[in-house]
Amino acid sequence: MPPPDYPGIKTVHSFAELMGTPFARGVNALCWRRTLAGDFGEVVEQLGRGDEIVTIEEEQLAGFDVSAAGRAAVEILRDDLQRLREAGRDPALNCVHRYARDEAPGPVRTDVFSWHADSAPVEADTWLCTYYGPPSEGLPNEEAQRRVDAPEVRAELLKLLGMEEDGAEFREALREHCFDLHYASLPQARPFSFGVGNLWRIAVDWPGSLVPPCIHRAPETPPGQPRLLLIC
Question: Where does the source fall among the domains of life (predicted)?
Answer without folding.
Answer: Bacteria
